[in-house]
Every structure is written in C-alpha cells, then in structure tokens.
Specification:
The protein is built from seven helices and seven strands; from the N terminus they run βαβαβαβαβααβαβ. The chain has about 250 residues and is an alpha/beta fold.
Length: about 250
C-alpha cells in the first residue's frame, strides 16, 4: 500500500458531498485512496465539480444523484454504486438541511422535511449499504452530528431532535454491527467556516471557543478519514467533537 493510501481498494459513499463538509470529506477519503461515490440531491454541478477535482488529482470518483429521504431512490443509487465498483465499504452520512424557525411558527411539513433527511435518509442508506459491508467482512459508518444534539438551540428544535436521534442511531448500530466488524461513530462539528449562506455559526462570535477560531471543513474531514482507516477499527460508538474545545463535559 502506498504511503498515505490507507483506504486503497475501499469504496466510500458520501451523502451531501457537493459542498462544505461533505466536499472536504469526499476529497479526504479520495486522498487516502478510496474510490468515492459523490452523492447530492439537487446540486449536480457542484457534485460534478467535486468528482472532477478528485479525478484531476489522480483519484477515482463519480456522481450519484439521489434524494436520500426516498428509500427507492437510495436502493437504486446503492445498486448502481455496487454495479460500478463492486461494493460499498464506507458510508458517510453527512447530508442535512439547516433551517431556523421558531417552534411556535414551525409547520409539520418543515419538521418532517428536516427529519426525513437526517433520520429517514440515514436509515435508508445504512440499510442499503449493509449487505455489501457484511459480505466484505467489515466496514465503517460515520454520521455527522452537531453540538445542538445535546445542548439544544433556539429556532432549531427540528435540527436538535434530528441530530440527537442520529447520535442514538450511531450508538445502537455500533452495538448491533460490531459482530460484523463494522465500526460506527459520530463526528460533531462546532462553529464552522463554510460557504453555507444561512449558517448562523459562521456569524457567531468565537469568544466561547477555547482555540479562539472556527473549525474548517478539512479538520472535520481529517477525523472522518481516520475513523474509516484500519488504525481506527476498534473505535466505535463514539461521539467526537471537532469544535476547538467548545463542548466540554
């Protein structure tokens, strides 16, 4: 195995990989030698740009468009990935939507829209990828959480509930899938420097971050990459914050 190619021969599916943290994760996994399936729901041009960036650097990547809240669409997407690459070894559950609405003004449709991506999407993708991982003798699943999963946040009740549920799913799957040599972990970014226009954390002060700055997508991606490597095989069921020390217990 070439130096720095600890994921050579592995196939990774990264949901919501067209921008920001998802993009950084897709690139980091490709740099580690993995073949990357770049997923997006609507941002096809951005997803294609990520895949091209990976290929231009000598890696392997293709775009697979699908709304992960749609179980049939996910089954079709994973089927296409397995048909093209032969398997799925790594699943990164990054796709999400970010909305801020006071709970009293929140419609049930908005509530369900967010949870359908965070929770239903994670269910569909995990179910679809597991047979391939089990057949291969192991794999890695990484979910992307958030600080509000445990702390809560104004105008983001649906987001807090979704991320908290994702953390519960992470721990339960870690216990259930360990016998198949599949490790499952959650990485929770703190305040981020991203291009997300509506990202409130990008406008928030960093005075409460001990490191004195926001995290970068690449720093989050580095932890995700490590958790998918053979060196991290015995790390499972963990919640890892990449927040400069902001969330301490």
């Amino acid at each position: 195995m070439a130096a720095g190619k600890e994921l050579a021969g592995k196939v990774a599916l990264v949901t919501g990989a067209a921008r920001n943290i998802g993009r950084a994760i897709a690139i980091a996994l490709a740099e580690a030698g993995a073949t990357v399936a770049v997923n997006a729901r609507a941002a096809k041009d951005d997803a294609e740009a990520v895949a091209k960036e990976i290929r231009d650097a000598g890696g392997k990547a293709d775009v697979f468009m699908a709304d992960i809240s749609d179980g049939k669409a996910v089954d079709a997407m994973v089927g296409d990935i397995v048909k093209r690459y032969g398997k799925v070894d790594i699943l990164i559950l990054n796709a999400s939507i970010r909305k801020e609405t006071a709970f009293i003004d929140m419609s049930f449709e908005e509530w369900r829209s967010l949870l359908s991506i965070t929770l239903d999407g994670s269910f569909h993708c995990s179910k679809a990828c597991l047979p391939s991982m089990i057949k291969a003798g192991g794999g890695s699943i990484v979910t992307l959480g958030g600080m509000t999963a445990l702390s809560g946040a104004k105008k983001r009740v649906h987001g807090s509930v979704g991320k908290h549920g994702l953390w519960g799913m992470t721990r339960a799957l870690a216990k259930e899938l360990g016998e198949h040599q599949i490790n499952v972990n959650c990485v929770a970014p703190g305040q981020m420097d991203t291009a997300r226009a509506a990202d409130r954390s990008a406008r928030a002060p960093v005075s409460n971050v001990p490191m004195g700055r926001r995290s970068t997508p690449e720093e989050v991606a580095g932890i995700v990459r490590y958790l998918c490597t053979p060196a991290a095989r015995m790390i499972s069921g963990q919640l890892i914050y990449v927040d400069g020390g902001q969330q301490m217990f």
